[in-house]
Design brief:
Blueprint lengths: L9 H8 L10 E2 L6 E2 L10 E2 L2 E2 L6 H4 L1
Length: 64
Amino acid sequence: MAVPKRKTSPMKRGFRRSADALKKPTYIEDKDSGELRRPHHIDLKTGMYNGRQVLTMKTADADA
């Protein structure tokens, strides 16, 4: 059975647990549309990423 050789200090324990804290996701305002989006993600309303058209957006009449 594996047994630790030394007691884990409170500082080392705190370093390990620091990643457990929940952080709020960050959002930025899109330069073109003004919508909020995650950084380094595609804008799903326009299909743009980094100033380029990445996704072709469906039109409303194509669904019918």
